[in-house]
């Protein structure tokens, strides 16, 4: 696999446009009654037509058998080795709500949740409480006083918030309190290195005081913390690929990730139609667009098969607005699979298709897991998507003599 340093040497500017559509958590698994996945169950004429004009395959975001988080999945699609460039969720959430982080700040992702009277998690997302309620709870948490550090909670979207810890000599090398499943108690946060001992004490004190402050709250009586991180050192997309990139995403984490890798984050409404309107408005100003659709992942995580099918159909119905632009290179894939049968991210490979004037359509007639398994790309690492898109856009010179 060619590294980013070599891509940087051969990348060049060209007038062609690349549009990368990421349908979050798009991959699924067969329904026990029909034997069809969510993609196979959905009516999606536009996605299927694009598949007929594309070269298709399946991608592994990290590696076969490895279940990726959202950040590693997207980093791989953008061409970064997700193992080498491991970025904590906290920094991405913070950047996504335009927080100005200092190099020494530690950021973590928080979920408001519910626990029973024995302290067992009953809902990791507190029913996806409204953002307004989350803001109210954050105001309560900002009364927490921890000796030797400044801690603050900032609402993000729905049940999500960002925890910022600021103080001297703190390290983000900490474990999570979130066990990532219901029916378990929150975990104690542990230091992964001697330097992180003080940060672990601060984080655990914050969690303890949170439990006390929220104990009488009916909608969310506890918080789960994960993804402790500081600002990383990562090369930017404009630096590597010589692109002028833009991002159109609704959820803060994806906006934060896009900002971190050097994309300009464009304003947009919440619906996919409004996102594609933003694409139209700014189409002349950039040569690379990352468009992120979240609803498929949310419905998969909720374990709602039919709702995920409807989300796919909603996405498909908006596609004519994009196809009017006829981008030189169109890539459609996902950052990971989220089967409704599992109600969480999974290790399953993700459908992929690339359409351009310079690719060879491979005879695949539908956009689905089984159909893409027969595609000309076969099964390949997600980090190879960007070189493929760049080559089809005539943005890469020859490698070597």
Task: Write up what this structure looks like.
β3 and β4 form a beta hairpin. The protein is globular. Strands 9-8-10-1-11-12-2-13 form an eight-stranded mixed sheet, with helices on both faces. Strands 3, 4, 5, 6 and 7 form a five-stranded antiparallel sheet that branches. The protein has helices at residues 4-10, 38-41, 45-52, 70-77, 89-96, 131-141, 197-213, 237-241, 252-260, 272-282, 295-301, 305-323, 369-373, 385-392, and strands spanning 18-23, 55-60, 106-115, 121-123, 150-155, 160-166, 222-229, 245-248, 264-265, 288-293, 329-333, 350-356, 378-381. By secondary structure, the chain is of the alpha/beta class. The longest helix is centred in the C-terminal third of the chain and has 19 residues, at 305-323. The relative contact order is 0.25. The mean pLDDT is 94. Helices cover 32% and strands 18% of the residues.
In the sheet with the most strands, the strands line up as 9-8-10-1-11-12-2-13
Distance between the termini: 18 Å
Shape: globular
Q: How many E strands?
A: 13
Provide the residue-averaged pLDDT. 94
Helix segment tally: 14
Largest sheet: 8 strands, mixed
Low-confidence spans = none
Alpha-beta content class? alpha/beta
Q: Which quaternary structure do these chains form?
A: single chain
Q: Whole-number radius of gyration?
A: 21 Å
The portion of residues assigned to helices is 25-40%
Strand content: 15-25%
Order of helices and strands: HEHHEHHEEHEEHEHEHEHEHHEEHEH
């Amino acid at each position: 696999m060619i590294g980013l340093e070599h891509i940087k040497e051969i990348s060049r500017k060209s007038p062609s446009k690349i549009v990368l559509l990421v349908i979050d958590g798009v991959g699924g698994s067969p329904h026990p009654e029909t034997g069809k996945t969510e993609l196979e169950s959905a009516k999606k004429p536009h996605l299927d037509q694009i598949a007929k004009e594309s070269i298709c395959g399946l991608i592994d975001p990290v590696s076969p058998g490895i279940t990726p988080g959202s950040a590693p999945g997207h980093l791989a699609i953008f061409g970064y080795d997700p193992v080498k460039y491991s970025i904590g969720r906290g920094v991405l959430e913070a950047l996504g709500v335009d927080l100005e982080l200092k190099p020494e700040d530690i950021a973590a992702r928080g979920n408001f949740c519910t626990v029973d009277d024995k302290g067992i998690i009953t809902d990791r997302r507190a029913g996806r409480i409204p953002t307004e309620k989350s803001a109210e709870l954050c105001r309560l948490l900002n009364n927490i006083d921890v000796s030797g550090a400044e801690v603050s909670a900032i609402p993000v979207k729905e049940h999500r918030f960002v925890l910022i810890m600021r103080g001297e000599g703190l390290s983000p090398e900490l474990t999570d309190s979130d066990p990532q499943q219901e029916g378990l108690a929150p975990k104690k946060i542990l230091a992964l290195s001697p330097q992180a001992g003080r940060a672990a004490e601060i984080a655990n004190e914050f969690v303890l005081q949170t439990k006390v402050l929220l104990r009488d709250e009916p909608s969310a009586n506890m918080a789960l913390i994960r993804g402790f991180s500081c600002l990383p050192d990562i090369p930017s997309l404009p630096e590597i690929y010589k692109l002028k990139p833009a991002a159109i995403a609704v959820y803060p984490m994806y906006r934060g990730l896009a900002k971190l890798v050097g994309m300009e984050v464009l304003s947009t409404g919440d619906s996919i139609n409004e996102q594609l309107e933003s694409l139209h408005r700014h189409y002349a100003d950039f040569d690379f667009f990352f468009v992120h659709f979240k609803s498929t992942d949310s419905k998969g995580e909720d374990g709602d098969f039919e709702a995920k099918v409807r989300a796919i159909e909603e996405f498909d119905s908006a596609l004519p607005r994009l196809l009017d632009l006829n981008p030189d290179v169109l890539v459609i894939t996902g950052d990971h699979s989220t089967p409704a049968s599992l109600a969480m991210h999974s290790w399953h490979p993700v459908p992929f298709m690339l359409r351009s004037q310079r690719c060879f359509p491979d005879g695949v007639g539908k956009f689905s897991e089984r159909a893409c398994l027969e595609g000309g790309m076969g099964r390949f690492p997600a980090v190879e998507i960007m070189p493929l898109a760049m080559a089809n856009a005539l943005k890469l010179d020859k490698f070597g003599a």
